Amino acid sequence: MSRVLVTGSAGRMGRSVVSTLAAAGHEVIGVDSAPEGTPRDAAETLPADLTDLGEAHSVLARFRPEAVVHLAAIAVPFGRTDATIFRVNTQLAFNVCAASVALGVPKLVLASSPTVMGYGAPGGWVPAYLPLDEEHPTAPWNVYSLSKLVAEQTMQAFARGGAGTRMAAVRPCFVVAPEEWEGAPTQSGHTLRERLDRPEIGSVSLFNYLDARDAGEFVDALLARLPDLERNGEVFFAGAGDALAREPLAELLPRFFPETGEVARALTGTSPAFSAAKAERLLGWSAKRSWRTELA
C-alpha cells in the first residue's frame, strides 16, 4: 500500500479516483479547496489553496506521499473570467510540480484535457487525421484549453530538467460520474439521454466521454507503470471505447464540422474520435464501461 495525495478530491473525476485507489489498497489523502464532497474512502482530507506555493509545499511536506494525482482546476471553459482560469490552472500545475520535485515525491500524475486539440475553434477546425492520438498537433483556441496545454508543458519541463519524480499527464475525455447514468445532470447541465437525443450537444466535445470509475482505474494503472515508462513526461488520452452517439461519427462529425468530412470516414460503427491505444499499449488499460451498458 502506498500513500497517494489526490488534489481536487471532491470533484467529478476526483471522487471516483479516490474511491478506486482506496479500493486498490492505497492510503488516499484528499486535498480540495472544499473537501466536504471527498468520499469517505479517503484516509484523511484537508482544505488547501494550492495556488499558494508555500501552501502546496506545506501540504506535501505534511503528508509525504509516494504519489500525487493532481486533478484540481477550474474544470470547464468559460466558467470564470479568462484571466482567472489561466492564472489558477497554470499556477496550480506549477506549484504542484515544483513542490513534488522539491520534496522528492516519486510519482506525479497531472490532469490535462482533450480540448488542447482545438476542436470547436470559431475559425474552423480541420484535424490532420482521425481518430486523434497523442501525436496529433495541439491547437488551443480558448484560455481554458491553453491553460491545460501550459500545465502539460510545465510538467514536461520539470521532467526534462532531470527531476527524480516520474511524471505523466492524462487527457480525460468528458467525465461521467456514476450518478449521471441515473439521470443527474452532467457538467454541461444536460442529462446523458439529452446528449444522445440531441447530438448537437455532444458534438461540442466530439461525442467523447469517460466513466469516472474507468478514470480511476486509469490512474491506478498509470501509477503502477509510471516507473517503467521509457520516457518521463508522457501524455495519454483516456476515453471510452465507443462514441457517446447513436450514429457512426463518420456521419455525425461532418454534420457539425463539415471540414472533417474526409478524415471522419475512418470512424465507422461505434468508433470514438479519440484513441486510447497508447494507454492500452503502455499501461495495459482500456475503458470497461460504455453508455450502452451503464445508462439506466
UniProtKB/TrEMBL annotation:
Pfam assignment, any one: Epimerase
Chain coiled-coil ranges: none
Domain NAD-dependent epimerase/dehydratase: from-to ranges: 4-210
InterPro entries per UniProt: Epimerase_deHydtase, NAD(P)-bd_dom_sf
PANTHER family given in the database record: NUCLEOSIDE-DIPHOSPHATE-SUGAR EPIMERASE, PUTATIVE-RELATED
Protein name, entry field: NAD(P)-dependent oxidoreductase
Record organism: Actinomadura napierensis
